[in-house]
Specification:
The structure holds 2 protein chains of 2 kinds. Chain A is of the alpha/beta class. Chain A folds into 2 domains: about 100 residues, no CATH class; about 260 residues, no CATH class. Helix content of chain A is about 35%, strand content about 15%. Chain A contains 12 helices and 15 strands. Chain A is elongated, with a radius of gyration of 25 Å. Chain A starts with a helix and ends in a 5-residue tail after the last helix. The model of chain A has no long low-confidence stretch (mean pLDDT about 90). Chain B has 3 domains: about 170 residues, no CATH class; about 230 residues, no CATH class; about 40 residues, no CATH class. Helix content of chain B is about 75%, strand content about 0%. Chain B contains 19 helices and no strands. In chain B, helix 2 packs across helix 6 and helix 10 runs parallel beside helix 17. Chain B starts with 5 loop residues before the first helix and ends in an 11-residue tail after the last helix. The C terminus of chain B is likely disordered. The chains are: A alpha/beta, B mainly alpha.
Chain lengths: ~375, ~475
Amino acid sequence: MDEKRSALFTIIIIASVIVVFTAGDLIQKDRLFSETENRVLASRPKFSLDALLWEDYTGKYEAYLTDQFVSRDKWITIKTYMDLALQEKEVGGVYLGSDGYLIEKHLPSDYTNVQVNKKIALLEKLVRDWDAAVMLVPTADNILTDKLPSYAPYYDETLLLDQVAQHVGEHYVDVYSVLKEHAGEEIYYRTDHHWTSLGASYGYDAWAEYTGNEAGQYKAEDMEPVTEDFLGTLHSKVNLNIDGERICYFPKTLEEPLKVTYDLEKEADSCYEKSYLDTKNKYGFFLDDNHAFVEIETGYHNHKSLFVIKDSYANCFVPLLIPHYEKIYVLDPRYFRGRLYEFMKSYEPKRGMDVLVLYNCVHFIEEFAYIE
Amino acid sequence: MVFSSVVFLFRFFPLFFLLYYLVPERMKNIVLFLGSLIFYAWGEPVYVVLMLFSTVVDYVHGRLLERLRGKRAARLVLLSSVVINLGLLCFFKYADFLIQSVNGVLGTSFPLFELGLPIGISFYTFQTMSYTIDVYRGQTKVQKNLLDFGVYVAMFPQLIAGPIVKYRDVEERLHNRRITLVDVSQGLQRFCVGLAKKVLLANNIGELWAFVGKMRFQEMSMLTAWLGIVAFGFQIYFDFSGYSDMAIGLGRMLGFVFPENFNYPYISASVTEFWRRWHISLGSWFREYVYFPLGGSRRGRPRQLLNILIVWMLTGIWHGAGWNFLLWGLWFAFALTLEKLFLGKLLSWLPKGIGIVYTLLVAVAGWVLFALETPAQIWGYVKAMTGMAQSLADRQGIYLGRQYLVLFLIGVIACTPLPKRIANYFRDSRTGFHMALYRFGEKFIPAAMLLLSIAGIVDASYNPFLYFRF
């Protein structure tokens, strides 16, 4: 009898795991969008005999079930904690660094010489034709090397930067050295792959030195926080229960009135968009997240214009240049399908304009492209 | 359908078993058969017909054999069954491989069929063949009930990846089986263990192999190469034995007792022993239906060695349509031959540890042949493993070692009977406290394994899209 009773309890305990979650899953309604994963979740596929036999209906149905499974996000957190328990220092392509830093992983084998040379050639041409300045910002794994897990491999960007410097000569702005100098400060976010506003301010110092302006305009104490709960892109990859962090900005950049136009239609009076602070994607606060083209008319009437070709790294940096230009044009080539030179010429005033290329090293290799 | 999926665990499993346990005895086989068809058709909506065809073919052959018992025509019927089954298997599995090889040798360019491989065909054709051969030999009674025979072939636990169940192993229970509470509870426990082996061990360790397998050999240090192939060895063992555990567990829940398919192969002290512990049902099938009919060891030593060679070539090629699989089989034929000749005797005099290390090395070398496809890849990998091509250890290798260290340690322990011995110790202990601990563990450990496995399954589909949404 004891044997039978024990068996019954075993059945009940194990089976209840299945039963509880089956019931929960059947009850729970489908979600359209996952904030954590920043993508649309699969919806129920349509059934037809054709779909079943030839169009992988069952595969799609399974993807739908898994995407919509009850407590999906919590399961992923459990899995990450399992990985942590196994002493793994890397989850989903993100290193779990010391001091609470999540650092995105990049491997040398991810990028080929062919690819790198192609991008540098493209860059060189742009620099020559437009007298452009080049700022390539190293990623966190290159600057915060002491925070990486021991022996963690990473892509050494100094080789890339040296190569770029060689090709663009005096147009190269050395961001690497100044960031390395301040590596002990909070110049990268702990949960996001971007540099912080403080990091951007040091980038500004490098730019100032290059253009012959005064460095040290933006100091740490001038920053003001806009949120304390920021959980960035890297957090989404690991989905751990950690505290959010702070995002700051420099109020100095708003001293004079601004007119900002996004994608030739949406207008705003600030380059900072507060509504993002209530969503998960708080970094979108800077320059209203990702747009193809942003036009900033500042209150500094010095007849100078700047054209920036950039990735999202520039978003918290561009506002720092506001006091130096009357007009700033910001272009993200990822979203731009036209001919670059033509487009730039259409905005170039008679007296010419400054051109700046601003990317982080990895995005530069992966994304930098334009059609002349 | 795959056991380690949301659709199986949270739709098929609860609904099927609810129905199965509720219906009376005489209707259980219908439920089982139809449920198995749905299970199979879910993954193969078109080729399910093929599986049914194979079933009907051998059902008919079985009845014919009974009719023609003792007559010469019986031999033709047997031949017909073997030809049809092997024909189907060869056509779907090996046709393109043969065509490619012919093209390569003769310089021709015959077009390939490019048909997908029907899931489980290597398993169910072998199962139905074992039935007809056994009926012919008089070792089993014919099955007159088409439904019952269909249940034998199509039963979902072992249809897709074994164990290869001989008809006589389930004959008794095909009709009128009693399912006790103990059957269900032990079946559930076994299922959970198998699921954890697959999702928590195999899938995780497999990531290491996936990573190393993509590297170029010129960039691989010796450490990295060894870590990679050992990871593969772990992955394939936990994946396959985990699946067998799940199949055996589910079979138990249905009221059947399937034979064991794995018996801690990595503690073997010789290659001969290894193949009595690894994929037991396949080795048993080849022994009974190929090795013994060829004469086994009863026709003198030279003939025995030839028989071993034949059986192992077939075993190799059964695993996959590729020359590397043939080489893999030959590699074991070579080791087994050496052991038959003198090595086995020698090993029995030496301490067991040496035998274990030797066996593991042979197995690991075999995995290199199994896991890589082309001679260039194999040779490149072997060079990396010797440490002569690149460095002995590099940053990448050390990092991988540290990342997977704990998982490897768990893997090593899970390859031994140690966890089972510990559990049995508590179960058989006289101490009230120990017994209580066992009672608690046997319920909650499988449940915990199940929960963690679910996390692993859901996580595998996690796909964050970082920069923008369209």
